[in-house]
Design goal:
Layout: H1 2-14, H2 17-36, H3 44-77, H4 80-85, H5 91-119, H6 128-150, H7 155-172, H8 184-190, H9 194-206, H10 214-234
Helix pairs in contact: 1-5, 2-3, 2-5, 3-5, 3-6, 3-7, 3-9, 5-6, 6-9, 6-10, 9-10
Length: about 240
């Protein structure tokens, strides 16, 4: 049941132009813009090395949180989830299928963003297993809270809230602008955000060659457990 629902979710998402814009085009545009201009105050060779991990983290958030919250919210409004609720598929199965869909899309995103970054001079290092661990935990964290929002709020409120969170986390989550620019007290709080943990963790691995960065993994694991538990508990089919 989960695999069948996953296949349906992937086909639906790939036919949705607005979703593809959010998940594919915007991260690539940000990567190219900030890597090839002096808007980011880093050395030319360092810009793409700093940006690529952050843009990968943004792609995970755009798919697992923003796109999923909005899409699922409107499925709930139009009665799609109500009909699914009448099938043997449980809430946990729906959450699993949507999370697997996100993973499939993220593979496509990583291939596209990686190709663009390499063309811009990116030189990644580090352990691929650490990257996979960070991305999977980040996906679980964002997916859980995206589904929690979609399953508890009205579709219009989900649309507004998800886009607002996307813009705010893009600005203060260390995706494009280094967290070192913020005061120390503010920076310490921002580092606990899932987007900051994912960005910093990917940077530690891909830019500095670290293996299994402890703090980012712990932060993402905490967000993942909280989000998925809350989503499974409070998600409403209608």
């Amino acid at each position: 049941m989960i695999l069948a629902q996953t296949g349906y979710e992937v086909r639906t998402l790939l036919r949705n132009g607005e979703q593809l814009l959010l998940t594919m085009i915007i991260p690539v545009v940000l990567l190219a813009l900030f890597s090839t201009t002096s808007l980011l105050d880093l050395g030319p060779g360092e810009r793409v090395d700093f940006l690529a991990p952050g843009v990968l983290a943004l792609a995970v958030m755009s798919t697992a949180f923003t796109g999923q919250a909005i899409g699922t919210g409107f499925e709930r409004r139009y009665g799609v989830l109500k009909r699914l609720g009448a099938t043997p598929l449980p809430r946990s199965g729906l959450i699993a299928a949507k999370t697997l869909t996100v993973v499939v899309v993220e593979v496509l995103q990583a291939a596209l963003i990686g190709a663009v970054a390499l063309a811009l001079g990116w030189s990644p290092h580090g352990d691929p297993v650490s990257v996979v661990a960070l991305v999977l935990l980040g996906t679980a964290a964002f997916s859980g809270f995206g589904l929690l929002m979609a399953g508890t709020l009205r579709a219009e409120a989900t649309l507004a809230a998800a886009n607002l969170v996307y813009v705010l986390l893009l600005a203060v989550g260390g995706v494009v602008f280094p967290l070192d620019e913020f005061p120390s007290g503010v920076r310490a709080a921002l580092e606990l955000l899932p987007i900051a943990a994912l960005s910093d963790g990917l940077r530690e691995v891909l830019q500095h060659g670290a293996a299994f960065p402890g703090k980012p993994l712990l932060v993402l694991a905490a967000w993942a457990v909280a989000g998925l538990v809350l989503a499974a508990r409070f998600f409403k089919w209608e």
